[in-house]
Amino acid sequence: MKNARVLLVASLLAASCATTAANPFDGVSSPTAEPPLPNSTPQTAVGLPVGLEVTGSIGCGQVAWYQLIVPSPRMITMRAYGQALEHALGATATVTFIDPAMGNLELGHMVLPVFARAPNWDPREQQFMPPHPGTYYARVSVDPNGCQRIALRMMLQ
What is the pTM of this model? Predict the structure, then answer.
């Protein structure tokens, strides 16, 4: 099943742009380059299609935006994995689900404490129910209190 899905790769090292590269998780390459992270506005959001894993990294105080297209209201599960990239003190990433059609209403949050170092990942999973079909956003930010760069893996189901 791992080989049947397409993995989208986005990474940021300091201020450099993301490039197409082999995914370190299973060796599958992305067919197109992804926009760089962090992408600090909803207008630059990276698509997060249902069933496809998106990866990337962000640092302290940075924000990454993802766009979710929901064709019909149904329970959606967000799976997120975090990995510390700089030191073992840990950090906390927050994923916030936003409904732009309702004046950027925040539908909920998922807190992802990150302490694991390679090859381990800290997993989290949360469900949310979109109130209507349409476009939604997931905003990922790293809490400045546990300031470090972290790697993320996210998938909607």
Answer: 0.72
